[in-house]
Design goal:
Layout: E1 2-6, H1 16-29, E2 33-39, H2 65-75, E3 79-85, E4 88-91, H3 102-106, E5 125-126, E6 129-131, H4 137-153, E7 158-162, H5 176-186, H6 197-221, E8 226-232, H7 241-244, H8 248-251, H9 257-263, E9 268-272, H10 282-295, E10 301-307, H11 313-325, E11 329-333, H12 340-344, H13 349-361, E12 380-387, E13 396-401, E14 406-411, E15 417-420, E16 426-432, E17 435-441, E18 445-448, E19 452-453
Protein name: Glycoside hydrolase family 10 protein
GO molecular function: hydrolase activity
Keywords: Hydrolase, Signal
Length: about 475
């Protein structure tokens, strides 16, 4: 993979002329995959999704950027991933004005109907950004459906999940709806401290459950669409999984991406390995995060995402060479800011992009016009739902073979969804709360099992002993 992120906060996607120039630039650079920002802040730079169009004065009226990128890029043999901000809901300084936007209906002022992620004191701004809480079942369903609407309506080659995590700082998840659900599922009372390990683990599982739902639904609709995530690499790299569990990625923003690759949930892991070689330790950190990601890759492809905007083109060239030599793909962030001089020193984007192109492609540069024709791994899996009169989340579900061999174990999300991937073909029985249902996996893909209605159990008081 030789990729380029194209964000929606500057030129590149707003008009037909910008899209044409961007695709030409990518082709001239030797890019084979574009990660095009599609869902930005619960709104879309597209016309056929379940979320409103982005409010942007520079976005040409009636123009569908995603459709035009797909048309032009596919004609050049370039793949297109719809890059989506999963939990991003809005920005207080630049709100979406559509009355159907999620923050108009379920924003901070919506009381019990609010889906906004909060700190213990009720505050909700991270800078100017507002996030949705993955622990609220309705919010999780909304996020999944918004992405699936893009999968259904566009001939994309992949999806990339971004902001699939909690905000920085660890003190999040304290919406009243999420807290009530946590107490009900765990039996714990009161309000957990931010350092409570049970609370932290529960929140981390909400993120993984959301990934699982989105990925399995996507594979059910279109098995050949790549599933990808842009993943966090904060601080010093771990040597192994035990070390990863001490990282900020795992303990602060609650993103357990090694579990996603090893479970087979994502086909492509793109590290946001935004290091600066001129900063002490960063050169080694960059290389060792790449090494760790390869060690836990499962079936997933791995690409090093590098911060073009923080580095000179020569440093970006060096980072790319090291990533490719280690066996990873490469993705640059971003088209709008192709070098530190564009980002900080007033250099124009066209000039910065040309300097980057020469550095990466000329005089033995690492970027050549390499086609990326690899298909995503073949998966066989199950998606189902448990329906109950009580809370539907946190119920343990097992997948077993016809002979009773345990194939996998998971828990339901807040909407009752469960799923398994990379199961063998044949009979697969699911068991939950003493009930079971058996179906057949006859071909690769994701089978949708029928909803399982849990039968209520009447609690009979024990008989009093006779005197």
């Amino acid at each position: 993979m030789r990729g380029l992120w194209v964000d929606a906060f500057g030129p590149g996607l707003k008009t037909p002329a910008q899209v044409a120039q961007m695709v030409k630039d990518a082709h001239d650079l030797g890019i084979n995959t574009l990660f095009v920002q599609t869902i930005r802040r619960a709104d879309c730079l597209c016309s056929r999704s379940s979320v409103p169009r982005a409010t942007d004065a520079d976005l040409a009226p009636g123009f569908d950027p995603l459709a035009e990128v797909l048309r032009l890029a596919h004609a050049q043999g370039i793949r297109v991933f719809a890059w989506v901000s999963v939990t991003g809901a809005g920005n207080a300084a630049a709100p979406n004005l559509n009355p159907q936007h999620v923050l108009k209906l379920h924003g901070p002022a919506a009381g019990l109907n609010s889906w906004v992620n909060r700190r213990p004191d009720g505050s909700y701004l991270e800078g100017s950004d507002i996030w949705l809480d993955a622990g609220i079942p309705q919010a999780a369903d909304y996020m999944a459906q918004s992405i699936l609407s893009v999968v259904k309506n566009y001939d994309i080659d992949g999806i990339q999940l971004d902001r699939i995590r909690y905000p920085d700082g660890g003190m999040w998840g304290y919406s009243s709806a999420a807290l009530a659900r946590y107490r009900s599922e765990t039996g714990n009372k009161g309000t957990p401290l931010p350092s409570d390990p049970t609370w932290i683990n529960w929140k981390r599982e909400q993120i993984t459950a959301l990934v699982r739902r989105i990925v399995l639904e996507t594979r059910r609709l279109k098995p050949n669409v790549w599933t990808s995530a842009a993943t966090i690499t904060y601080g010093a790299p771990p040597a192994d999984l035990s070390g990863f569990e001490k990282s900020r990625t795992y303990s602060d923003v609650l993103q357990n991406w090694p579990a996603w690759t090893q479970e087979g949930l994502i086909d492509l892991n793109v590290l946001m390995n935004y290091k600066q070689d001129l900063v002490p330790n960063h050169t080694q950190w960059f290389d060792d995060w790449n090494k760790f990601a390869l060690s836990v890759r499962g079936k997933a492809e791995v690409a090093a995402g590098t911060a073009l905007y923080l580095n000179s083109p020569d440093v970006s060239r060096n980072q790319m060479q090291r990533a490719l030599s280690a066996g990873l793909g490469w993705v640059g962030y971003a088209y709008r800011t192709p070098g530190v001089d564009v980002y900080k020193n007033g250099q124009s984007q066209p000039r910065g992009f040309e300097v980057l192109r020469k550095s990466l492609t000329q005089n033995g540069g690492p970027l050549t016009a390499t086609p990326w024709k690899l298909s995503p791994p073949v998966h066989s899996g199950v998606l189902g739902r448990v329906i109950s009169s009580s809370d539907m989340g946190g119920k343990v579900v097992e997948a077993r073979s016809a002979g009773g061999t345990l194939l996998g174990k998971t828990t339901t999300d807040g909407n009752g969804y469960y799923g398994f991937t990379d199961l063998p073909l044949g009979a697969v029985e699911v068991r939950v709360a003493g009930q079971r249902w058996q179906g057949q996996l006859t071909q690769a893909g994701v089978a949708r099992y029928p909803d399982l209605l849990l039968k209520g159990t009447q609690i009979i008081p024990a008989l009093k002993s006779r005197p």
